User: Fold these one by one.
Assistant:
Number 1:
Amino acid sequence: MFKHKIMTFAAILISFSSEIYAKTAYPGGAWEPGPAKYGVEIVQDIRLKMDDGVVLNASIAYPTDLTTGKQAEGKFPVVIEHTPYAKFSATLQPNSYFSEHGYISVLITARGGGKSTGQVDNSGLRDAKDGQEVIDWAAHKLNKSDGRVAMIGCSWPGMIALSTAGHVREKSPLKAIIAACSGFESIHREAWMVGGLPTTALWQVTQNAQFALGDTPAAQQYFKMIKDGIQQSAEQAYERRYWRERVSMNLAKPIVENDIAVLLWSGWRDFVPASALRSYTALQNAYNRRPVYAAMQANQKISPKYQIIMGDWGHSEGLDVGIYLQWLETWVRGIDTGIQDTETPMHLFEKGSNQWVNIKSYPVTTQYESFFLQPNERLEQSQSVKTENEKINWGEPEQNGTKRVFNTQIFPEGATLAGPMSVTLYASSNNSNLVLIAKLFDVNPQGQAELLTSGAILGSLSQLDQDKSWKDKHGNFIWPWHKFYREQYLKPNKVYRFDVALSPRQWAIKANHRLRLELTTAQSESICPNEGIPTTTHFELCGQTLSQLKTVPGGVYHLFYGTEYPSALNLPLLPLDPFKKIHAGQIPTAWNENLRKIVKQEPLIPTYALPLDWGK
């Protein structure tokens, strides 16, 4: 039994639930959308000319009088979805749910997609400029607009919303956005590449996403450029101008300065949970005039205008248009819906306990625990004095010698992991590069293992940005932030330090469970085939760029540990159940983003419980 240091509760941010529960099935328990107040009239193929001559196609859903069927009297706020997508299972239409509740709902197809002209920009400066023009049109020229505007979107549209919000003029009509399934700096750091290595999502997107954009020549050209650029180690493979112009974390500052409310919405099984969480901290830091890349301070002031929902679901899942509407009613119309007073704006699903918790700041604690690699596959909280090393070969994990496993002892009383995690590894390679993939598992008493989190690093792109990396109170890196600017190859057989960022989690380790750290060097061919496009629905590392193919294969690595080389797993370890669990339930307006409709109680279509108490 190892020593389990118990944190003082003064260091733990405990969220409090309301004493009286819900009179409605929506967060706060005091507001609900009610039945439809209006009918809907959709006007198709509105052509909006941008300042450079490119024409964007728009569809508009107007509220209509339920009795006469004519456009309703009066003026209404406008909610915009600016998306490159032209179709999923069917042609995309503006979301009429908002029109039924008193908003003009506008669907704008981004340049290069569908019937819009121009070249695909993917949330860059040009898409942001288009967004500004669309917002000004919606506020001042669109018939029946009352001048107040919001933007919504999941995935790519969510990034366009963030990019637009970060570039609007001072005193913009834009009042609020909902950026679901997205976050600042998410594509090249978490969705399409992780640790400098390509993912299954990259190959699947560059092969198939053009069809969602309408299979336009512009879409075909764009995805070929991305695929070729990353494969050939061009600018798109690194942290250079191309990605720096696309939804930088620095946009948090102008968003806050322009007083634009932001709801982030992601899932632990999404492509971008880390980016969404880091976006939340950037916005709250900007509100406090602190560096946007920094870790939050436990006592810093919190704004309810920047909140996040993080559930147990994958990409584009777990969304709810009723809560979307509640966010718009709160920050666009200024209605007291019960969610604007919270002091705990992080609403996180906790795996293990399978309940929701409310949290204030991130990281939750800076008192991390290090579990050091030891002989005989052990992870211990004390270091081995003697320097040890183990060989690990590059190759698929099914091959001999390509995997190393380390286990903690059991947690007799259980524990909670809350926040970012990391692995510090000292290693050498016999060639000029190295790939290390770290996976952390929760193992029950019967030996069954459940993947908790993962991360990876490419040796030639392992240089840290010290200013943007988070550290615990002892100076250990708990959220390494890598520069990814250029390849810097290793000297063969020299020992280097590698800091691997593991995707953050909120996870309850049950009593008598243990943790297992698995280190591998390549992906299984069953997940990442040697030929063709991966078909797995799971988000995994997959493949290598041409430069990596020249420097990685044939690698023989040595992992070092001991006092001289303190390789360790760094965890935000708290006692079991340090947070008050909050009320949750299934909401009547559960939205399916792929089907583009409300799916309450439809067979074979999953719906999810959502947090209903956002705290005070």
Number 2:
Amino acid sequence: MSPSNTPKKFAIDCCFIAFICFILFSFQLGNRPFATPDEGRYVEIPREMVATGDWVTPRLNGVKYFEKPPLLYWLQAYSFKSFGLNEFGMRLWIVIFATLGCIATYAFGQSIFDRATGLMAACVLATTALYFSLARLIILDMVVSTWVTLALFCFYQALYLPPSEARRLWFYGFSAACAFGVLTKGVMALAVPGPFIILWLSYTRQWRLLMPIYFIGCCVVFLAITAPWHILVSLKNPEFLYKYFIVEHFLRYTTTIHARYKPIWFFLPITLVGLLPWTAFLYAAWQNFWRQKTNFLLSFLWMWVGWVLLFFSISNSKLIPYILPIFPPLALLIAHSLRQTYLSTSRNIFYWHSFLMIGLGVVGLIVPTIIPEVLDGKVALIPYIYALSCLFAMQGLVIFICLRRHAIKAVIATVGLTAIIMTIILGAAAPHVQKPSLKGLVSIILKQRKVDEPIVSFLTYYQDLPLYSQQRVMVVGAKGELDFGTTVEDTTKWIVDEKAFLQQWQEAQHKGRKIWAIGRLHDLEAFQQKHSGFHFKIISVDGPNALFVPVRN
């Protein structure tokens, strides 16, 4: 804890950050259905845990699912038991972890810089476009990012303490955070802090500070958290080790097995855009480091950024949320740069920020009009794009005027206010960004369906179909990520090919029974052209998806 801060101030600051972040992240949290595929998957697995009482073997639509460890599943299962199938309630754990990530960033900042920098870092992190957006989405990456932040915070605190009980506890905290990270997303949670620590200690030549590391105690803490589930699930499922460690860790990273290949530079623009509206201040942060290359603390933060960016960039599997662990150190660096700029007489970085915001505003107002295809059919987003563009342009103009009047406090206040307004606009736009939900179509099924009538996911696996229907569904001709589970168990009763489905459908047509099926309209038309005996009646259409039932010819 920095000398300028006291335990009482620290506790008050943490409570204040927790309150503000919770309100910010949870505002209109339930204003949209579960997004697919991630939210549908990460709510359905806990729902099945509650339904079956099996807390060891994760299952998705009744099929063994070993892609990820169970910590978030367990937490979500608790929410399901507490709130039922409720979008707001099921997203609360992500809000909690996102809030904890901001508190950890503040604690890191106030301990290595000062209280003002810590508070500013928490503000920057909470209001960056990507962090805010992912703080409202049920994904593992927000949770593991928080564990990584806590782990590296504990490590840095322990490293510079003399041998003592406090040092021991900080190292135990480091081990516990790493362990919970592994229990959230597997070995990847070690791949960020582990190699980075080795690189940084080598760069700064501070290996002597590592001892004593309390190795045995740290191992006990780590294994006490991670070992029980890994042992139990391996004993119950002999196929677990291969699928979990070889396929989902080694092959996912080194091959394109999951068809998530992106160019090596993919995460660079994602980071720059995701940092908005604070992106321009990165330049000043880098300049500050370049003038103090021997500063161990700044090198710690920049190497943290560099290693995360490098590690995920060279991977053959890339998704936008993977880069989330880069944002806490970037928030600290930006906050430190802003603090230094505020205390100095230089204002150039604010001018650059002003010009960047005006430029972004102009581009945002022009591009959707002259190149509408960039929206990929998301016409509903245009009002929000225009709102953000106007916000950025106005901010740039206001900052320029304030700078001319030497009102630096007004400049910083304007940036902060813009960031908050931006999060409100992003929150309102969220329902129009995600893929169409089946919630409306499933509600029709549940109102009219009899107990013994099957529900079918036709030629694609809709992640939210078993979730909103709250039962296992028949999947036709599209195993996807269910494929591995079908090779180790007999799932032929509900995972069927087109031929078996057609036979059941024609029997239902003949007997006048109903099968409630949902599929994409173009798949439905193509299937009918291939099979002349396939007759159906469309009950409802929602976007590209149709709800249909058998009908006699």
Number 3:
Amino acid sequence: PGLQLQMTGSAAVGGETLLASRDAIRYTEWITVAMILLILAAVYRAPLLVAIPMISIGFAVVVSTSLVSLLTSWSIAGAIPGLDLRIFTTSRIFVVVILFGAGTDYCLFLIARLREEALSHPWAEACHRSLHGVMGALMGSAMTTVVGLGMLWIASFGKFHYTGPVIAICLLVGLLVCTTLTPALLYTIGPKVFWPAQVSVENYQRLTVFHSPNSRRSYSSGVWSRIALILTRHPLTTLSLGIAVLSIPALYGLRHENAVTYDLSSQLNHSAMSRRGLRLLAEHFKIGDINPVTILMLRPTDTPPEAFEQEIKELATELYEVEGVATVRTADDPLGDFPPDRDMSLLSGDAWRRRTLRNHRLAQNYFYSSNPELTHRLARLDVTMDGDPFSIDTAAKVSQLSRFLHDQAKLDSSPWQGSTILLTGTTPSIIDLRTVTLRDNQRIKIAVVVAVFLVLVLVIRRLGLCVYLILTVLISYYATLGLTLLFFQNAYGSDFVGLDWKLPLFLFVILVAIGQDYNVYLVTRIVEEQRKFGWISALRRAVSRTGGIITACGLVMAATFLSMTASAWIPPLAEFFGWQSAGSGRSLKGITELGFALGLGVLIDTFYVRTILVPSFVALLGHRAAS
């Protein structure tokens, strides 16, 4: 009676992480669908215009996920030479939010252009003209995302390597559906798709600015027309102020980009059983004792047993001199109770325990291999380090330990010359993970920027403008990262140990790729209008005509990303109202942080970069060209 049972360890943490991932996927799907329905209903107030995008995207999700599953099964079976594809648990979250968000954006942009063309053309011609008019923008925006995410393929880390191509394949399917099935449905249903609203010139003029080819004056009461007018009249002022304001959080994000944690257990909330067990262990045991660094020393040739044991004793004595080493457990000292400066007294109970344990069969089998081929060649040592095994400081000490051992293997005078040395355990695993992912980060960031830039050049064909668009997305990324850091530092308080280590790279790739969507929509419309009007008039016309629909697209994408945070707030909200939550009550901080950051980044791109920075720069170019 009164006994408390807590389970912890790598299996418990991993199991609860998988359960939390399952809950996150389910909550994300529910909230994503609900948010898109609400936004579409608010934008269109027409049942059929809500139903058509949902039908199209639902079809795209089913087809794309089935296709990825089929390709993965072929990859595992080796049916297609060279095909290498795997699916991670959290890949479905990215597929759902990005496909629902991007697919809805494609449909919104197509329907908005159709509404525009239907004012002055028969329905069949309007459908044709609308699809033809937006196809370039849709292809450009989709390809920036597909190519950007596809660059994750060059990563060495598996979750990066496979997740990007999986999302890219699903997006291609989504683009195909939204440019075939969606226009077919619109064409078949006809003008009654706008019911109960009516598309009339009078209603449309309230939302549109009209320019005379021979005049720079504009007439409109729409908010986007007024924004366009201000931006084109004072481009240098708005551009300078816009960059200055965004640079403040961007500088903070740039300085603290590596403020991340590799502590896998910290991803679970405090109510998780395995997390509670870890806290109990930390209270009653030294945390280094329960996470030792295991060293495997493999000699190239057999050694006499007595000499082998003596060399291990001498190595253990030398290891105590390495900074951060607390204890060294060997077959001679199984518990690590006797550092070199402690004597084996005849009256000491610890000494008699040591004598008993080092002769025990279990201790011998633990520290020496029972394989006849390796009996006198392979030895194990367990080293406990001072400090938290998940911290960067402990990782630096273990790296120093590894260098010391590898130096021993290179010294001609060392008995371990030519030996193979392997380190495993919590801290060595984190060191390897950090090494691989940091190398991936550098390569992928360069590859994504170059790939997206090339797509922009092909679509927009204006080199200087493409360079500027890339710079705006980069400053948007760092500003988003800085604001995310500040938010979670305050939200978590003393529990904050850093953002999830995967967040900076996923945030960078997705923002650079998807953040260009709205820039492509706007700039391609400017280029189209410029064929009939002057530069400034084309800019005003493009901003006023695309402002509302791009804003709606941005809200849809931000809502889908923010739905990734649902597993953090739905269970406590349900509990507050006395409802039974369908989930386990677990949430993953990494998914919550990434969802918040992506949603915030899309909002910054939509309401700040696309609204202020891009039009101001284009207007400045126009004024200089005119002068």
Number 4:
Amino acid sequence: MNYMRKLILHSILLLSVFSISSCNYLDVDKWFDDTMKYDSIFSRKEYLERYMWNVASMFPDEGDFLNSPATAGPLATDEAFETFNAETYTGMAYVTGAINEENITNKDAKKKKSIYQWDTMYKIIRKANIILSRMDEVTDMSNLEKPDIWAYTYFMRAYAYYHLIMDFGPVILVGDQVYPSNEQPEAYANVRATYDESVDYACEQFELAAQYLPETQPNSSFGRPTKGAAYALIARLRLIQASPLYNGRGQTYFGNWKRSSDGVFYISQQYDDRKWAVAAAACERVMDMGRYELHTVPADKDSFVPPTNENQAFPNGVGGIDPLKSYSYMFNGETDGRKNKEFIWGRTTGNLCIRESFPHSMDGYNGMGVTQKMVNMFYMNDGTDNYPEDAKPYKEDGTYDNTNFSTEDETFSEYVLKSGVFNMYRNREMRFYANIGFSGRFWKARSYSGSDAKKEQMIKYDNSSVTDGKHSSTGYVITKYVHDDDAFSSPGGILMEKFFPIIRYAEILLAYSEALNNLQGSYSIELKGSNGETKVYEESRDIYKIKQAFNPIRYRVGLPGVKDDELASVDGFNKILQRERAIEFLYENQRYYDVRRWGIYEESEKEAIQGMDLSKDEMSGYFYPVVVDHPWIRHRVVDRKMVFLPIGKYEIRKVDGLDQNPGWGD
């Protein structure tokens, strides 16, 4: 292993947290709050570029989705549950009722966790507008250099609106306006646009950015957006806009939500089939670029061999690739994200909360649990749900069967499944082994150089000998971002450099499949392509095209593709798609938004959080799924108002005509 290239010291994970504060969405930049300072920014190209990238640094780290003050994330879903401190993690604070319109923009670190998105995003928008309005003042910048500044600034402005739309829904569209700091409050009065107007505007801004953004970035600029990033985010927004909750089928949530100024529905109450076609075309445009592909690793003699007859070479079958490494290497650091063609846009990050998954005996915190519901989502390695008889924890008479453990070691694709593992965890699909740490999982921690038992252990996840509440309350942890070399223990413990996919090609393929599946008619959609020419995309529910996009996702992990009979029903295939996204994007901050846009948020989240019975030992009932016994489970809030975050009450009072999100402040 090339440790000098891939490994970083554990100490760099101790990053300081930096936040921007603001009273409301019109606050003036506190760093450059007078004309003289702004004049200095626009006196030289170098200063302008520094200022622009400083604006970009205000966006949250997308990889910090568990502990970020900018997103509710997996802990606000049925994916995850933690036992540390509900006020420490935004998502847990949100679903236990600790975040509301009174304190969502609370900056007091001693108080409950807050979410800073609303004011910070409008601060970014204002800065972007200042750049666009004054960049012509820079005298040492040629006309050939201006498009770069335009592109990144338009992208930042669009990305700020994107964040607002995702979490708060309809936004205030400021346009190009730069509000001066000495205006009276009445000059700032504004109303929110509708949801469709908000999405349309954000997509228009991404389109403007895409005209001048480069198609690729050098490795030294990894993390900077490209044309593909702009197009992919348009595709994501268009898919969400076409989804049931926002496309005429969200009456339960938004049937009475109208703009107070004119009585217009914030969310359309009329179904528009064409929105699915627009989403499909936006995906197809990304596919047409020819720059992106699913990440794969070639098979070798030790690779897992799928028990399927679809043995044509990938992408037409499962042949020729290692299905575990092809998926896991994207996330654990083995593949350099800067060179990964599946990453349409990504970033390096040190905020993936890996230590929260590590066992106590390896100096980890061991408290970030994955739910039994998510574990059950994963297929068997033949693509079915047909668990073998010896994987069931009970006999026909209902008594516990303590003989259902493996009796010999299994090794595939460098993954070790030790003897003594409960059979429920054997013969599962490869994404299960990449994602889930279960009782009996073998932890390698190869960079640890000590001679004690901290290296290479089978770990049981339970609450024994733990008095501080720091244990996985479900019996599972997330291992998606953990490499076999990773270790926190000294001596020698180091971590692989990690890369987080903000949006990857697999999402485009699944979004395209979903959009086509839901189309009822045929449409011609015009979009400007990456070459600058307009192309007409013909979209309809084409089963062949759906399979061409969907099946490689399955093939990549060694599973059989979807069959024609599974595509016979639109609703039936939607359920398959929903499950596929739950598996494929586990702990990538997708599910929080997915269950909402599908209109199944309440149905999904009201299911009890289950895990293993940690009060029992492995021979007397540990493997019976039970409802997690924890006060945060009992106090967990599921309320339709939580589809959108509330706007802070101070913001509502500050800006005349600003309507609150439904259900908040009633």
